[in-house]
Amino acid sequence: MLETETAHSAAPALPPELQSPRAKLVYLYLTTNDSATVADMCDSLGMKKISLYSILKTLRKQGMIDRDGDAYTLT
Q1: All domains of the chain in start order, with CATH
Q2: Of 2, 27, 28, 35, which is the most exposed, with the fewest CB atoms less than 10 Å away?
Q3: Which superkingdom heads the taxonomic lineage of this protein's source (predicted)?
């Protein structure tokens, strides 16, 4: 039981403004990886590039992520 409680308390908090399940998935992916390219996220998350670009654009506008070259990171 202690392991479960520890695992839940260590889970990163999601910003309340994240409504889309896919945006939450991308955000959580970036919390577990220092940085990631669109290709990395496509392969790991099984999402199409067109969907990812839309989500990444929204997350950047909301100030949640930054882009450095081809890589995206949390702010």
Answers
A1: 19-74 (1.10.10.10)
A2: 2
A3: Archaea
